[in-house]
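User: quick one, fold this
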Amino acid sequence: MKFLFSLFVAGTIMMTGALAPVAQADDAEIVTAKCVSCHSMKRVCRALGKKDLAGWEKTNARMVKKGMTVSDRELAKINRYLAEAKPDATICQ
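Assistant:
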């Protein structure tokens, strides 16, 4: 029984770690699709690491007012991704 429980815990940990890069890749795709429709990726990348979550929320609320079409869920993902991304992020290369 302990063996099965250990196997379950190990599998859960592995799956959680394995899915994190997939979620980040999906978020990067949303950022690319929504931001690059008006801005160059170079411009987006220059701002990475300069704003915290509140800063990106303010910026992207302004973008929504200017016409960016995005769901609340997508907007949350965009804000979180941009707040956590560094200037050397995959989307910038």
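User: anything notable?
Assistant: The radius of gyration is 17 Å.
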